[in-house]
Protein backbone atom coordinates (compact mmCIF):
# COMPACT_ATOMS: atom_id res chain seq x y z
CA UNK A 1 0.00 0.00 0.00
CA UNK A 2 1.37 3.43 -0.92
CA UNK A 3 1.35 5.57 2.25
CA UNK A 4 0.95 8.72 0.16
CA UNK A 5 -2.33 7.37 -1.25
CA UNK A 6 -3.66 6.49 2.21
CA UNK A 7 -2.24 9.05 4.63
CA UNK A 8 -4.94 8.40 7.23
CA UNK A 9 -5.87 4.99 8.58
CA UNK A 10 -9.41 4.77 9.97
CA UNK A 11 -10.55 1.89 12.18
CA UNK A 12 -13.88 1.57 14.01
CA UNK A 13 -14.37 -0.83 16.93
CA UNK A 14 -16.56 -0.75 20.06
CA UNK A 15 -18.19 2.53 18.94
CA UNK A 16 -14.77 4.25 18.75
CA UNK A 17 -13.28 5.54 15.49
CA UNK A 18 -9.48 5.68 15.57
CA UNK A 19 -7.86 8.02 13.04
CA UNK A 20 -4.13 7.41 12.65
CA UNK A 21 -1.89 9.71 10.59
CA UNK A 22 0.42 7.55 8.49
CA UNK A 23 3.09 9.62 6.71
CA UNK A 24 6.27 8.11 8.22
CA UNK A 25 8.58 9.62 5.58
CA UNK A 26 7.80 13.13 6.91
CA UNK A 27 7.17 12.24 10.59
CA UNK A 28 3.40 12.43 10.10
CA UNK A 29 3.49 16.06 8.95
CA UNK A 30 0.13 17.53 7.99
CA UNK A 31 -0.53 18.39 4.38
CA UNK A 32 -3.74 19.01 2.45
CA UNK A 33 -4.18 15.28 1.75
CA UNK A 34 -4.28 14.56 5.51
CA UNK A 35 -6.77 17.36 6.13
CA UNK A 36 -9.04 16.17 3.32
CA UNK A 37 -8.85 12.58 4.61
CA UNK A 38 -9.78 13.74 8.11
CA UNK A 39 -12.77 15.67 6.80
CA UNK A 40 -13.93 12.58 4.87
CA UNK A 41 -13.54 10.38 7.95
CA UNK A 42 -15.44 12.88 10.10
CA UNK A 43 -18.18 13.00 7.44
CA UNK A 44 -18.65 9.22 7.73
CA UNK A 45 -18.62 9.31 11.55
CA UNK A 46 -21.09 12.20 11.59
CA UNK A 47 -23.54 10.21 9.43
CA UNK A 48 -23.70 7.57 12.14
CA UNK A 49 -23.46 4.58 9.77
CA UNK A 50 -20.26 3.27 11.39
CA UNK A 51 -21.73 3.23 14.90
CA UNK A 52 -18.85 5.37 16.19
CA UNK A 53 -19.76 7.75 19.00
CA UNK A 54 -16.26 8.87 19.98
CA UNK A 55 -13.03 9.56 18.10
CA UNK A 56 -9.36 8.93 18.84
CA UNK A 57 -6.66 10.77 16.87
CA UNK A 58 -3.12 9.40 16.90
CA UNK A 59 -0.01 8.97 14.79
CA UNK A 60 1.94 5.98 13.51
CA UNK A 61 5.55 4.97 13.95
CA UNK A 62 6.27 6.59 17.30
CA UNK A 63 5.39 10.14 16.21
CA UNK A 64 2.07 11.89 16.79
CA UNK A 65 2.50 14.73 14.30
CA UNK A 66 5.49 16.91 13.40
CA UNK A 67 3.35 19.86 12.34
CA UNK A 68 2.50 21.31 8.97
CA UNK A 69 4.49 19.87 6.08
CA UNK A 70 7.01 22.56 5.15
CA UNK A 71 8.55 20.59 2.28
CA UNK A 72 6.10 22.01 -0.23
CA UNK A 73 6.44 25.65 0.88
CA UNK A 74 8.23 27.83 -1.65
CA UNK A 75 10.31 30.37 0.31
CA UNK A 76 11.73 32.22 -2.70
CA UNK A 77 9.22 35.10 -2.93
CA UNK A 78 6.76 36.82 -0.64
CA UNK A 79 3.96 36.00 -3.07
CA UNK A 80 4.80 32.29 -3.02
CA UNK A 81 4.98 32.21 0.78
CA UNK A 82 1.63 33.99 1.12
CA UNK A 83 0.02 31.72 -1.47
CA UNK A 84 1.18 28.57 0.36
CA UNK A 85 -0.04 30.00 3.67
CA UNK A 86 -3.44 30.91 2.24
CA UNK A 87 -3.89 27.44 0.75
CA UNK A 88 -3.04 25.67 4.02
CA UNK A 89 -5.21 27.96 6.16
CA UNK A 90 -8.12 27.43 3.76
CA UNK A 91 -8.06 23.74 4.71
CA UNK A 92 -6.57 23.65 8.21
CA UNK A 93 -8.65 26.30 10.00
CA UNK A 94 -12.01 24.68 9.11
CA UNK A 95 -10.63 21.33 10.37
CA UNK A 96 -9.66 22.83 13.75
CA UNK A 97 -13.09 24.44 14.04
CA UNK A 98 -14.79 21.20 13.12
CA UNK A 99 -12.80 19.10 15.59
CA UNK A 100 -13.38 21.61 18.41
CA UNK A 101 -17.13 21.60 17.83
CA UNK A 102 -17.60 18.01 16.63
CA UNK A 103 -20.76 16.08 17.50
CA UNK A 104 -18.87 13.35 19.39
CA UNK A 105 -16.05 13.54 21.97
CA UNK A 106 -12.47 13.43 20.69
CA UNK A 107 -9.45 11.97 22.50
CA UNK A 108 -5.88 12.62 21.31
CA UNK A 109 -3.49 9.69 21.85
CA UNK A 110 -0.15 11.50 21.73
CA UNK A 111 2.14 8.53 21.15
CA UNK A 112 5.23 10.59 20.31
CA UNK A 113 6.34 14.10 19.44
CA UNK A 114 3.50 16.61 18.90
CA UNK A 115 5.25 19.57 17.33
CA UNK A 116 3.98 22.91 15.98
CA UNK A 117 0.72 22.33 14.13
CA UNK A 118 0.74 18.78 15.54
CA UNK A 119 0.40 20.27 19.01
CA UNK A 120 -2.38 22.52 17.69
CA UNK A 121 -4.14 19.40 16.38
CA UNK A 122 -3.92 17.63 19.74
CA UNK A 123 -5.31 20.70 21.50
CA UNK A 124 -8.44 20.64 19.32
CA UNK A 125 -9.47 17.44 21.14
CA UNK A 126 -11.38 17.13 24.41
CA UNK A 127 -8.96 14.88 26.30
CA UNK A 128 -5.24 14.37 25.69
CA UNK A 129 -3.49 11.16 26.75
CA UNK A 130 0.29 11.26 26.30
CA UNK A 131 2.91 8.50 26.23
CA UNK A 132 5.43 8.90 29.06
CA UNK A 133 8.23 9.26 26.49
CA UNK A 134 6.36 11.71 24.23
CA UNK A 135 6.53 15.49 24.33
CA UNK A 136 4.89 18.62 23.00
CA UNK A 137 6.77 21.46 21.34
CA UNK A 138 5.14 24.74 20.20
CA UNK A 139 8.05 25.23 17.80
CA UNK A 140 6.61 28.06 15.69
CA UNK A 141 8.83 30.91 16.94
CA UNK A 142 11.98 28.87 16.28
CA UNK A 143 10.93 28.73 12.63
CA UNK A 144 10.24 32.44 12.50
CA UNK A 145 6.50 31.81 12.36
CA UNK A 146 3.50 32.91 14.44
CA UNK A 147 1.72 30.08 16.32
CA UNK A 148 -1.48 29.16 14.47
CA UNK A 149 -4.15 26.49 13.91
CA UNK A 150 -5.88 27.65 17.09
CA UNK A 151 -3.01 27.04 19.51
CA UNK A 152 -3.03 30.57 20.98
CA UNK A 153 -6.74 30.05 21.79
CA UNK A 154 -6.71 26.47 23.04
CA UNK A 155 -3.42 26.46 24.97
CA UNK A 156 -4.25 29.53 27.07
CA UNK A 157 -7.64 28.07 27.99
CA UNK A 158 -6.13 24.73 28.93
CA UNK A 159 -3.08 25.78 30.97
CA UNK A 160 -3.64 29.48 31.73
CA UNK A 161 -2.35 32.65 30.11
CA UNK A 162 1.00 32.92 31.89
CA UNK A 163 2.24 29.44 31.10
CA UNK A 164 0.77 29.55 27.60
CA UNK A 165 2.55 32.80 26.71
CA UNK A 166 5.87 31.55 28.09
CA UNK A 167 5.55 28.24 26.21
CA UNK A 168 4.79 29.97 22.89
CA UNK A 169 7.56 32.56 23.29
CA UNK A 170 10.26 30.08 24.34
CA UNK A 171 9.18 27.33 21.90
CA UNK A 172 10.73 24.66 24.11
CA UNK A 173 9.89 20.99 24.56
CA UNK A 174 7.20 20.21 27.13
CA UNK A 175 7.79 16.65 28.45
CA UNK A 176 4.85 14.40 29.27
CA UNK A 177 5.23 14.84 33.05
CA UNK A 178 5.23 18.64 32.74
CA UNK A 179 2.24 18.51 30.38
CA UNK A 180 0.33 16.57 33.05
CA UNK A 181 1.32 18.99 35.82
CA UNK A 182 0.20 21.96 33.71
CA UNK A 183 -3.15 20.41 32.79
CA UNK A 184 -2.18 20.21 29.13
CA UNK A 185 -2.55 16.41 29.26
CA UNK A 186 -5.33 14.53 31.04
CA UNK A 187 -3.18 11.47 31.67
CA UNK A 188 0.31 10.05 31.09
CA UNK A 189 0.32 6.43 29.91
CA UNK A 190 3.18 3.91 30.27
CA UNK A 191 5.28 3.65 27.13
CA UNK A 192 3.44 1.77 24.39
CA UNK A 193 0.05 1.84 26.13
CA UNK A 194 -1.18 5.31 25.13
CA UNK A 195 -3.45 4.20 22.29
CA UNK A 196 -5.13 1.48 24.35
CA UNK A 197 -5.67 3.93 27.21
CA UNK A 198 -7.07 6.61 24.89
CA UNK A 199 -9.40 4.09 23.24
CA UNK A 200 -10.62 2.93 26.67
CA UNK A 201 -11.44 6.54 27.60
CA UNK A 202 -13.13 7.06 24.23
CA UNK A 203 -15.19 3.89 24.74
CA UNK A 204 -16.29 5.19 28.12
CA UNK A 205 -17.36 8.47 26.50
CA UNK A 206 -19.09 6.61 23.66
CA UNK A 207 -21.15 4.72 26.25
CA UNK A 208 -22.27 7.94 27.93
CA UNK A 209 -25.34 10.09 27.29
CA UNK A 210 -24.44 11.47 23.87
CA UNK A 211 -26.63 14.59 23.93
CA UNK A 212 -25.53 15.48 27.47
CA UNK A 213 -21.83 15.15 26.62
CA UNK A 214 -22.40 17.38 23.59
CA UNK A 215 -24.11 19.98 25.76
CA UNK A 216 -21.28 19.88 28.32
CA UNK A 217 -18.68 20.41 25.58
CA UNK A 218 -20.69 23.28 24.10
CA UNK A 219 -21.18 24.97 27.48
CA UNK A 220 -17.51 24.54 28.32
CA UNK A 221 -16.46 26.13 25.03
CA UNK A 222 -18.51 29.27 25.73
CA UNK A 223 -17.61 29.71 29.39
CA UNK A 224 -14.72 32.16 28.87
CA UNK A 225 -16.88 34.36 26.63
CA UNK A 226 -19.96 34.57 28.87
CA UNK A 227 -20.80 36.43 32.03
CA UNK A 228 -22.00 34.27 34.92
CA UNK A 229 -25.56 35.34 34.15
CA UNK A 230 -25.21 34.36 30.49
CA UNK A 231 -23.68 31.01 31.42
CA UNK A 232 -26.46 30.26 33.91
CA UNK A 233 -28.98 30.96 31.16
CA UNK A 234 -27.13 28.67 28.74
CA UNK A 235 -26.99 25.91 31.37
CA UNK A 236 -30.72 26.29 32.04
CA UNK A 237 -31.54 26.06 28.34
CA UNK A 238 -29.35 22.97 27.90
CA UNK A 239 -30.92 21.32 30.94
CA UNK A 240 -34.43 21.94 29.61
CA UNK A 241 -33.52 20.08 26.41
CA UNK A 242 -31.92 17.26 28.38
CA UNK A 243 -35.02 16.77 30.54
CA UNK A 244 -36.93 15.90 27.36
CA UNK A 245 -34.71 12.85 26.73
CA UNK A 246 -35.04 9.23 27.85
CA UNK A 247 -31.37 9.21 28.92
CA UNK A 248 -32.28 11.56 31.77
CA UNK A 249 -34.95 9.11 32.96
CA UNK A 250 -32.52 6.19 32.65
CA UNK A 251 -29.75 8.00 34.54
CA UNK A 252 -31.95 8.87 37.50
CA UNK A 253 -33.54 5.40 37.60
CA UNK A 254 -30.08 3.78 37.57
CA UNK A 255 -29.05 6.01 40.50
CA UNK A 256 -31.98 4.84 42.62
CA UNK A 257 -31.58 1.22 41.54
CA UNK A 258 -27.84 1.34 42.37
CA UNK A 259 -26.74 0.12 38.93
CA UNK A 260 -24.80 1.44 35.96
CA UNK A 261 -26.99 3.42 33.53
CA UNK A 262 -27.56 2.18 30.00
CA UNK A 263 -27.85 5.21 27.76
CA UNK A 264 -29.41 4.63 24.34
CA UNK A 265 -30.04 8.02 22.70
CA UNK A 266 -27.47 9.03 20.11
What report would you give on this structure?
- The protein is of the alpha/beta class and 266 residues long.
- It folds into two domains: 8-206, 2-enoyl-CoA Hydratase, Chain A, domain 1 (Alpha-Beta Complex); 210-256.
- Helices cover 47% and strands 16% of the residues.
- It has ten helices and ten strands.
- Helix 1 links the parallel strand 2 (16-21) and strand 3.
- The chain is globular and about 65 Å long.
- The chain starts with 7 loop residues before the first strand and ends in a 10-residue tail after the last helix.
Alpha-beta classification? alpha/beta
User: What is the CATH topology classification name of the largest domain?
Assistant: 2-enoyl-CoA Hydratase, Chain A, domain 1
Low-confidence stretches: none
Mean pLDDT: 90
- What spatial form do the alpha-carbon principal axes imply? globular
How large is the radius of gyration? 19 Å
Q: Would you identify the CATH H-level superfamily of the largest domain?
A: 2-enoyl-CoA Hydratase, Chain A, domain 1
What is the distance, rounded to the nearest whole angstrom, between the alpha carbons of the first and last residues? 35 Å
Quickly count the helices: 10
**What is the top-level CATH class of the largest domain?**
Alpha Beta
- Please write the string of helix (H) and strand (E) elements: EEHEEHEEHEEHHEHEHHHH
How would a textbook summarize the main sheet? 6 strands, mixed
Q: How are strands sequenced across the largest beta sheet?
A: 1-2-3-5-7-10
Provide the β-strand percentage band: 15-25%
Number of strands: 10
Number of domains: 2
- Second-tier CATH architecture of the largest domain: Alpha-Beta Complex
Helix content: 40-55%
Amino acid sequence: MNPHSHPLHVHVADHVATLSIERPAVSNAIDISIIRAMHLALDQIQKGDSGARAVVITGSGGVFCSGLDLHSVDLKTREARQRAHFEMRRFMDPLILRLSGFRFPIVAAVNGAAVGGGMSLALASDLIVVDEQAYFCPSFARLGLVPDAGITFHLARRIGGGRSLAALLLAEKIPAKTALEWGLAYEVAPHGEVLARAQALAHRLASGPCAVLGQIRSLHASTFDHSLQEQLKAERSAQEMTLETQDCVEGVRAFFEKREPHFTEH
